[in-house]
Design brief:
With about 500 residues, the chain is α+β, with helices and mostly antiparallel strands. It is built from 16 helices and 20 strands. It is about 50% helix and about 20% strand.
Length: about 500
């Protein structure tokens, strides 16, 4: 009788559960279970028993002579195959009535899971079909989204925390998600246990932040423009609540005014420092030249030395002319930046030049600096905007259907349906001729540039987390951004 040894195919590290083909058990059949694996044995397609790590066990001797002649199948479970996984979701619309702010928000982080019940995990997927890390991640990410989105929306819909300080809610959101996921019945039904969960960042849509900043920075209405209402009844509690909101609003406005003043002061200091650095750079160069001329003059005859000395007045004029000739480019600013604040200017320069090229070179439709697109054209791009099987502008629901990301409408028809919408960054770069993967990279860079050029506590927190995770400095990132945009014809200022 021919000997057959059943053992898992370990060539693909992304497989969590690997099945043998169905077989009729005979006396020559053995099983080998490697370390970090557990075997779940099926008898007539029903789970019969488990086998822990072993080498060459004869199945019928070890687990029952009555099994001979039965139709069997073995599932090898690699318990340590599931690595730490990233999760994330975004574009959750929030209407904060307390602060009268509307914006889109998202969050991301990591989670670690372990298999708590092999039988439940196997039962949650079709029998005989390998269960992969990706298939588990897909289900887990969908469940995390279904739990996390309501928590995120609830936190921001009823908070007094400003949109510019949302990172302060990280701990509260993490605790709520941990509690909700620990009790999630669908996760338990999969035989999965979440052992660790982090919330690495909270992200507010940059375009929404811009709109809020513009509203904050807009001149206040005059007394004649303000609407006034006369109360029809005396309601002390309502008056107190309204007064509290007004005081809160005044405090918030003052904080933001302070931030603006700080930003303006920083920009002024940066400009002064830039000019000083240019002069210092030229002083150093000219000092070196003069030193070499001095050394040279001492080594030759006095007659020649006199002629060299006559050159020094020309040197001062040359210095002044050189200062005028130096071209301040983004590359120059990046190379000579001694601290992160000095990178605000080149980030703004790159951002504005790319924006200008999108308007004039390509040219994308826009109103002032707001890019717009016909809604039907947008929907056509949505179906094409994907990397592999992953859509960039669609969010997959747990049932396998998709939600399309809906940009802010610019104009509507009589029925309220969008005619034109704002053109989100990914679509802008696709319209500029970049393939989806490159358009996604260009959009991601665009978002980071916008954070760098707008100095705020919220942006600084987000940038610090981003660059720590990236393992690069801001200067290195800006050099890479400059190279990428140049290569794709998007940056042309230098």
């Amino acid at each position: 009788m021919r000997e057959t040894v059943f053992t898992p195919d370990m060539r693909d590290s992304g497989v969590v559960v690997w099945y043998t083909e169905a077989f009729i058990l005979d006396k020559g059949m053995k099983i080998t279970v490697p370390n970090q694996y557990t075997a779940v044995v099926f008898d007539n397609e029903k789970i019969s028993f488990r086998v822990e790590p072993c080498v060459g066990k004869v199945i019928f001797k070890e687990y029952g002579k009555e099994l001979l002649g039965h139709t069997m199948r073995i599932a090898f479970v690699h318990a340590k195959a599931i690595p730490e996984t990233m999760w994330g979701f975004g574009n959750i619309q929030v209407n904060n009535e307390r602060l009268r702010e509307a914006y889109r928000v998202g969050a991301n982080g990591t989670y670690q899971i372990e298999i708590a019940d092999y039988g439940k995990l196997i039962g949650a997927f079709p029998t005989g079909v390998s269960i992969t890390v990706e298939s588990i991640k897909e289900r887990m990410n969908a469940l995390i989204r279904s739990v996390g989105i309501p928590i995120l929306g609830g936190c921001f819909a009823n908070t007094s925390v400003s949109v510019f300080e949302v990172s302060s809610l990280l701990g509260d959101i993490r605790r709520q998600m941990q509690d909700a996921l620990a009790g999630e019945a669908k996760i338990k039904a999969m035989g999965i246990r979440i052992t660790a969960l982090t919330v690495a960042g909270i992200h507010v849509n940059e375009e929404d932040l811009e709109l809020i900043r513009e509203r904050i920075n807009a001149p206040e209405e005059t007394g004649a423009e303000k609407e006034t209402t006369v109360p029809t009844s005396v309601d002390i509690s309502a008056d107190l609540e309204r007064f509290s909101r007004e005081i809160s609003g005044m405090i918030t406005s003052e904080i933001r005014a302070s931030e603006r003043r700080t930003k303006e002061a920083n920009e002024a200091r940066m400009a002064d420092a830039l000019e000083e650095n240019r002069a210092q750079l030229l002083d150093a160069v000219m000092a070196q030249i003069k030193g070499e001329l001095d050394t040279f003059g001492k080594s030759i005859s006095s007659e020649i030395d006199e002629k060299i000395q006559d050159m020094f007045p020309l040197q001062d004029n040359a210095k002044e002319d050189a200062v005028k000739e130096i071209k301040v480019t983004a590359q120059f600013l990046i190379d000579n930046a001694a601290e992160d604040d000095a990178l605000i200017a080149p980030a703004a320069m790159i951002y504005s030049n790319v924006e200008e090229n999108l308007m004039k070179k390509f040219p994308l439709p826009h109103e002032n600096k707001k890019f717009i697109i016909d809604y039907h054209e947008y929907l056509l791009i949505v179906d094409k905007a994907k990397i592999g099987d992953r859509y960039l502008l669609k969010i997959r629901r747990p049932d396998g259907t998709y939600d399309i990301f809906q940009p802010r409408p610019v104009s509507r028809d009589r029925n309220g349906s969008p005619i034109t919408v704002e053109m989100v960054p990914i679509v802008r770069f696709i319209k500029a001729g970049l393939p989806p993967a490159e358009a996604k990279k260009a959009s991601d860079i665009w978002t980071v540039l916008n954070r760098i050029r707008h100095k705020s506590a919220e942006n600084e927190t987000a940038l610090r987390d981003f660059f720590e995770a990236l393992g690069r400095t801001r200067k290195e990132f800006l050099n890479g951004a400059l190279d990428f945009y140049r290569e794709n014809g998007l940056y042309t200022k230098d």
